[in-house]
Amino acid sequence: MAIAPSKLGRFVLPMLNADEALLRSLRAASLVSPDAPDDALVAVFRSARDEHDALPERTRRFNSPHERVRVFLQPYLSDRGRRWAVPFSSLSLPDDEEQPSDKHP
Predict the structure, then answer these.
(1) How many CB atoms lie within 10 A of CB 41?
(2) CA dihedral sign of residues 17, 32, 75, 10
(3) Confidence band (pLDDT; 50, 70, 90) for 100?
(4) Are 1 and 61 in contact (CB under 8 A)?
(5) Distance from C-alpha of 47 to C-alpha of 68, rounded to nearest angstrom
(6) pLDDT digits over 29-79, tens only?
(7) 8 Å CB contact between 34 and 19
(8) Reduced to 3 DSSP states, what percent helix, strand and coil does the chain have, rounded to the nearest 5?
(9) 20 to 30 A from 84, CA-CA: which of 12, 94, 97, 105?
């Protein structure tokens, strides 16, 4: 079964194999919880890639490691990250949607 596309998965794709860049980018975009430990997030990236690599070749073509990272990140996502992780419907979210720091009292 294929993993459905999401805005978060597309965000992850260009940095899939660059753990530090991905970590910095996820934090800068407020997609992960500020209290999520860096080492836990990097472990998630690696676990998702390792699981993808362990799939049989015939199955791998129906799955994408960047969407697998999105699924593995679920416990660490911020509210914004959870919105970006919703398969299909998140693809229409604007890149500049309001972030928590943009809200005014």
Answers:
(1) 21
(2) negative
(3) low
(4) no
(5) 9
(6) 999 999 999 999 999 999 999 999 999 988 888 889 999 999 999 999 999
(7) no
(8) 60, 0, 35
(9) 105
- Token pair for 12: 């992850």
CA 34 to mean position of chain CA atoms: 15
Tokens describing residue 62: 């129906």
pLDDT tens digits, 1-10 = 578 999 999 9
Query: How far is 92 from 39, CA to CA, in rounded Å?
Result: 31
Taking the C-alpha atoms of residue 89 and residue 79, their distance in angstroms, rounded to an integer, is: 15
31 within 8 A of 85, measured Cβ to Cβ: no
Which two structure tokens, joined as six digits, stand for 70? Answer: 């999105």
Instruction: Name the pTM for this structure.
Output: 0.88
DSSP character for 104? -
Q: What is the rounded CA–CA span in Å between residue 64 and residue 87?
A: 13
Measured between alpha carbons, how far is 88 from 7 in angstroms, rounded to an integer? 8
